[in-house]
Design a protein that fits this description.
The structure is a single chain. Strands 1-2-3-4-5 form a 5-stranded mixed beta sheet, sandwiched between helices. Strands 6-8-7 form a 3-stranded antiparallel beta sheet. The protein has a two-stranded parallel ribbon with strand order 9-10. Helix 8 crosses helix 10. With 456 residues, the chain is of the alpha+beta class. The chain has 3 domains: 165 residues, Butyryl-CoA Dehydrogenase, subunit A, domain 3; 134 residues, 3-Layer(aba) Sandwich (Aminopeptidase), CATH 3.40.630.180; 149 residues, Malonyl-CoA decarboxylase, catalytic domain (Aminopeptidase, 3-Layer(aba) Sandwich), CATH 3.40.630. The two termini are 46 Å apart. Helix 14 links the parallel strand 4 and strand 5. Helices cover 52% and strands 11% of the residues. The protein is built from 21 helices and 10 strands.
């Protein structure tokens, strides 16, 4: 039985359920039907017990939701926040029972009563044909609303993340090799979703996935047919790549795979914004590494060539800080040249800036922390959490306009050593320690206050 069969089965159940609903509504009269709001339909879905009618009603709700404009959509989210939370009476009753007789059973009753009703609503909506994809889009629109300071909707967003974390568990994900023979509907989405290095049309895409020294892998979920969740572009090289231009060059030497020793993951793109914040689990990259290793056992080195999209903003804040722990006054004075957007085009200026910039970058990656005590760089958190080590910081590795604006041209290599992935992951998970190579550690000024750094 495949996904298509189950989709057709759900569609059949939905159609039969729709017929039942229509007969019931006809008995109530058309005026009642017209007065039903989307919220009232959600209440019906939660109170109903019939499977067929429930599937049909869920499909009806999602269809009506899809027709909402911005204002009514926000009103619907507000209703989810304020009318579909936990049942206070049921929760108080469960708490009282637990206090009177604490046990696993009464504790479970408290847990069940404390769950917001909207979580069960989302589960039932998920039964509709295409329900999972519709809910992912709904959460994306909720995120757009949250961006406009609707903080009261944060609880609804948290419920989405809670449910999606179970629905998109790594055990459900399927890894597929993407090649030029992959259906066009998937290839088109790679062009659209590429978030690191834009793909400029079909020929550019072909250069990235068709030559023998290029690979692309994507993770899929059974409920989202032909919708990649995350994809990884790989270049097979002789050695660790320190710049992006040679990899993306239109005219380049195509290598025979058996003569390569290094796999460079130069672009990793999340495709579904509605799944932002939902962890697909650690070791996703390890799965790609193992897949490539089976195909090409001669490969010995697996590294990323990763962007640093927030470095320039961080460095600007440190330069403006009265007392910066990351850069001293001497380096601050030298970094004033960064105010000229074309500083890197002059070899003498670039050479003068390289040493203080490399020191600042090393601090950023190894020691800079956010309010939670984790590395401030989101890309670093992803790779360190997947068991990589910070291997090398690359100077002027991406001189595109966007990269110079966001990262002053820096890119970094994170190395995935199959023998150390689990160990590195545990070190980072337990202590948020950055596992870094000796070359990166040497860039740090020894006079600055140390934060835990593990040698790779």
């Amino acid at each position: 039985m495949n996904v298509s069969f189950f989709g057709e089965l759900l569609q059949t159940i939905s159609e039969r359920g729709r017929a039942l609903l229509e007969r019931a509504r006809d008995r109530r009269g058309t005026s009642s039907v017209r007065s039903e709001s989307l919220v009232e339909l959600c209440e019906q879905l939660l109170s109903g017990r019939g499977e067929a009618s429930g599937v049909a009603l869920a499909r009806d709700i999602l269809a009506r939701y899809g027709e909402l404009t911005t204002g009514p959509r926000i009103a619907f989210f507000e209703a989810l926040a304020h009318r579909f939370g936990p049942d206070p009476a049921a929760l108080e009753k469960a708490i009282a029972a637990w206090r009177e007789a604490p046990s696993d059973a009464t504790a479970a009753a408290v847990h069940a009563a404390s769950e917001p009703r909207r979580q069960e609503l989302f589960r039932r909506l998920n039964l509709a044909p295409g329900g999972t994809a519709a809910l992912v889009r709904m959460r994306e629109q909720l995120m757009d609303t949250l961006d406009h300071r609707h903080d009261d909707l944060a609880a609804v967003d948290a419920d989405f993340v809670h449910l999606f974390s179970s629905w998109f568990n790594r055990g459900f994900l399927v890894l597929r090799h993407i090649g030029w023979s992959t259906p066009a509907i998937v290839l088109e989405k790679l062009i659209r979703y590429e978030a690191v290095h834009a793909i400029n049309g079909w020929e550019d895409l072909r250069r990235r996935i068709d030559p023998p020294d290029r690979r692309c892998y994507a993770f899929f979920h059974p409920a989202l047919v032909d919708e990649p969740l995350i994809f990884v572009e790989v270049a097979l090289e002789r050695e660790i790549a320190g710049a992006i231009d040679p990899i993306l060059a239109t005219e380049r030497e195509i290598l025979e795979p058996e003569k390569t020793r290094t796999a460079v993951f130069y672009s990793i793109s999340n495709c579904q914004r509605g799944l932002t914040g939902v962890s697909f689990g650690s070791f996703l990259i390890k799965q790609v590494v193992e897949e490539i290793s089976r195909e090409m056992p001669r490969l010995s080195t697996f590294v990323t060539l990763s962007p640093v999209p927030n470095f320039a903003n961080w460095l600007k804040q440190e330069r403006e800080a009265e007392n910066s722990s990351a850069i001293n006054e001497f380096d601050k004075a030298a970094l004033a040249t960064l105010d000229d957007p074309n500083w890197w085009r002059t070899p003498e200026t670039a050479a003068r800036l390289q040493e203080p910039m490399m020191r600042a970058a090393a601090w950023y990656f190894v020691r800079a922390r956010n309010s939670r005590g984790s590395p401030v760089d989101a890309v670093a958190r992803f790779h360190l959490g997947n068991g990589a080590r910070l291997e090398r910081i690359n100077w002027l590795a991406d001189t595109s306009e966007r990269a110079m604006r966001q990262s002053h041209g820096f890119m970094v290599n994170y190395q995935y050593d199959l023998d150390d992935i689990e160990k590195n992951h545990e070190i980072y998970a337990e202590t948020r320690t950055v596992v870094a190579s000796p070359a990166v550690q040497r860039l740090l000024r020894p006079s600055l206050e140390l934060v835990p750094v593990a040698a790779g």
